[in-house]
Amino acid sequence: MITPSHNPPGDGGIKYNTPDGGPAASEVTREIQDRANVLLEKGLKEIKRVSSEVAQNAVRAFDYVGLYVSHLPEVIDMAAIEGSGLRIAVDPMGGTALEVWQAIAQRFKINLTIVNESQDPTFAFMPPDHDGQIRMDCSSPQAMANLLKLKDQFDLALANDPDADRHGIVDAQGLMNPNHYLAVAVDYLLTHRPQWDESLAVGKTLVSSSILDRVVSKHGRVLYEVPVGFKWFVEGLHQKRLAFAGEESAGASFLTMAGEPWSTDKDGIILCLLAAEVFAVTGKSPSQYYAELTQTLGLPHYKRIDAPATAAEKKVLGWLQASHIRSSHLVGEPITDILVKAAGNAESIGGVKVMTVNGWFAARPSGTESIYKIYAESFVDQDHLDQLVSEARVIVDDMLSNLA
């Protein structure tokens, strides 16, 4: 895939999936990257070329879109959506989902309007993100400004990033936080997929909201927590050990209704359609569903912020050890755990997660931009969350200054 995904267009590049259909492991990506750099250093002289005519004669057309759309009823209750009469808007954000949504609109009797059919490699039609950059980030209120303007004209407004592996959900209450929606998706699926075996686990990244932990516990399921990166879920989805797998940055996938593998990479389209299924079957918008969940499981306050980081500082963050955290308390509470490896698979998280009874923060370097990311969550209130973020920055900056 050649895409900037949800990043600025200037950060576009190649994504590579291995034969299992999931994101490539780090060692595979590194080998491709190293080989590409060697070719560039040699002025691309080793790149073999053929004419466009020869290239076109060497391949045959295959209708991937038609195949995908025809199988959607295996994973989503499309009949319920068709019968609901829900007014649904879709913004593919200039990406490859456009043709898929067009095919969905043609195949199924859904009241669906595609509100943006623009496709432009500069993505000049996008509203600027919070920092003035262009990002096709369907979890950003700023980037989703065009859809948010339409929230009162539709029951649901849905969006995907350019490679359609992320989802954005807008209802009458506005843009849903991805973590909130993942909690809704998991709770709904665990009560509306009777063919799913009870031994199936639920996967989440360790910087996703802890309300997912509570939803999974409520249903007596096993939680499988891994570092950031969907690659950690590929084997579990492929081998039918994970019913659902999701990450904090609005990416997820799940099994078919029969409990068979659907996709081993993130599928933003089925997550969008699931929001419509939830609304159609329960009569509750995703935001209303989430509000009911928090009445029994608690109301989390979650935030992610970005801070500048040099390449050297990002490298330091990637190999932190628990012993590098010198603080014993976080916002007045004793630190209960410091993680540098994920509980589910004991893999390095490429950063650190610091936990207390009522909150946590995690810090890790970005894989694409010159920043590091702080994730924080409080089950107390917004002020407590703001304090968590402030103290997290102090702790991280202190470590960087001492170790860089």
Mean pLDDT, as a whole number? 94
Overall geometry comes to globular
CATH architecture of the largest domain: 3-Layer(aba) Sandwich
Task: State the helical fraction.
Answer: 25-40%
Oligomer class = single chain
Total count of strands: 18
Kindly report the name of the CATH homologous superfamily of the largest domain: Alpha-D-Glucose-1,6-Bisphosphate, subunit A, domain 3
Secondary structural class: alpha+beta
Distance between the termini: 35 Å
- Rg is 22 Å
CATH fold-level assignment of the largest domain? Alpha-D-Glucose-1,6-Bisphosphate, Chain A, domain 3
Please give the largest β-sheet: 5 strands, mixed
What do these coordinates show?
It is built from 13 helices and 18 strands. Helix 4 (78-84) crosses helix 10 (268-282), helix 7 (178-192) runs parallel beside helix 8 (211-218) and helix 7 (178-192) packs across helix 11. The protein has three domains: 2-57, no CATH class; 65-297, Alpha-D-Glucose-1,6-Bisphosphate, subunit A, domain 3 (Alpha-D-Glucose-1,6-Bisphosphate, Chain A, domain 3); 301-403, Alpha-D-phosphohexomutase, C-terminal domain (TATA-Binding Protein, 2-Layer Sandwich), CATH 3.30.310.50. It has helices at 26-41, 52-57, 64-70, 78-84, 97-107, 145-148, 178-192, 211-218, 234-238, 268-282, 286-297, 311-318, 382-403; strands spanning 2-3, 13-14, 87-91, 111-114, 156-160, 167-171, 174-175, 201-205, 223-226, 242-247, 251-254, 301-308, 329-330, 333-334, 337-341, 348-355, 359-365, 371-378. It has 404 residues and is of the alpha+beta class. The strands form five sheets. Strands 4-3-5-6-7 form a five-stranded mixed beta sheet. Helices cover 34% and strands 21% of the residues. Strand 3, helix 5 (97-107) and strand 4 (111-114) form a beta-alpha-beta unit. The longest helix is centred in the last third of the chain and has 22 residues, at 382-403. The chain is globular and about 60 Å long.
